[in-house]
Write a structure and sequence with these properties.
Number of strands: 0
Strand content: under 5%
Shape: rod-shaped
Largest sheet: none
Radius of gyration: 21 Å
Order of helices and strands: HH
Distance between the termini: 60 Å
Number of helices: 2
Amino acid sequence: MRQIGGRAANVLRILLVLLILTPVVYVQVNKILYAKRVSAYLTDIKGYTEEEYIC
């Protein structure tokens, strides 16, 4: 019986970690995608070179 309780606690810990990490990963991925989208816009549409828009 104790084994089942230990497994349930581990499953709950894993779920808690996933719930905490999911928004962090989501935001970081969106930041990367946005940066790539802006870079593509500046180079393709506006004609900037990479040296001109990288700070």
